[in-house]
Every structure is written in structure tokens, then in C-alpha cells.
Amino acid sequence: AYHKNFVEYCSSMRDYFYNRGFDMSDAEKWGIGSNGTQLYFPLYDKHDDLKGFIWRNFDTEPKYMHSSREDGFVKSEYLYGINDIDKSSTTAYITEGTFDVMMARKYGLKNVFAVLGKAFKESHAILLKSLGFTKVIIALDGDSAGIGAVRNAAQAARNTGFFCSVAILPDDMD
Asked: Is 164 helix (H, G, I), strand (E, B) or coil?
């Protein structure tokens, strides 16, 4: 219902989505929906089972919210996009958010996953290792919080045996 609402009634949400470089085929592929004041992204696990949602608020803070532990969603153990893995590569790319994954995949980059924030933890690395990945490339925002998060993420990756590279984005690039 929320996807149909996005398609048929939520022009301001569609405009926001389109202005970020996406179109209706992207919304359909990723299952994007709306209730009029929030943009919803379904969260699927590695088995393609729905685990919850993350949503972007447009009229309240915080800007992003997600399903709770009570609903069975554990953010520190989740990577957005993990339900769509290209087994021909053992390199995983780590970004911050849903739009990062969607845009990278739209333009052909495979195995891009998001931590839904800045904290790539050892639990994320263990999940990637269990799926056959051997290299991690971390690309988080270039602001001061992102730089600190890259250091922590690289350490978490190395602690679990990954070869790790980082891509430092310019400070004003999201």
C-alpha cells in the first residue's frame, strides 16, 4: 500500500526522489513507498526476507528512523542491499545510506551495501566474510564524522581479516 501511495498520491515525495537522480523504475525495483510525510525503504536480509523499514522524515526529527529491535531489526547486524549479491566478485563496497547504494547500483557498481549511518562494525564484517567477500572498500561521507567513522570501519574490517581500502570523499560530497 505504501508503494502505491508513493506512485499515485505523493507528488512531493516523488519530486524529492526524482531530484536525487532516480525515476519510477528505481522506486519499483527498490520498493520505495510513502505515507505522505515519510519516504520508506524496505530492508531485506541476505535471504531476501523483509526485516523492517528505514524511513526518511520530512517534517520531524530525526531525519532517518528504522524498525526497532522489538520488530526483529538489528541495525548493527544489517547492511542495506545485502539481498542482492553478485557472486562473481569478492569485493564489497560500504557506504552510509540507501541512496548511496541505489545510485551506485543504478550505474552498474555491484556489491554496494550501506550501514545506514556511519558505523561499520565487526558484526558487518563477519556477515560479509560469511558471504564470501575478501576485500572491503569503505566510502563514507567526507565530513569530520565520516573521516572518524572510516578509521573505525577500516579497523573493524582488518580485525576480521579483510583487505581494506578507503575512499575519502570531499567534505561537501554526500
From this structure: strand
Residue range 41-79, pLDDT digits in tens? 999 999 999 999 999 999 899 999 999 888 888 888 899
Q: What's the pTM? A: 0.93
Measured between alpha carbons, how far is 102 from 112 in angstroms, rounded to an integer?
A: 9
Residues sharing a CB contact under 8 Å with residue 97, sequence separation 6 or more, in sequence order: 64, 80, 114, 116, 117
Extract the C-alpha cell encoding 73. Answer: 531489526
Helix (H, G, I), strand (E, B) or coil at 74: coil
At 6-41, the pLDDT tens digits run: 888 888 889 999 999 999 999 999 999 998 889 999
Which residues are 95's β-sheet partners?
114
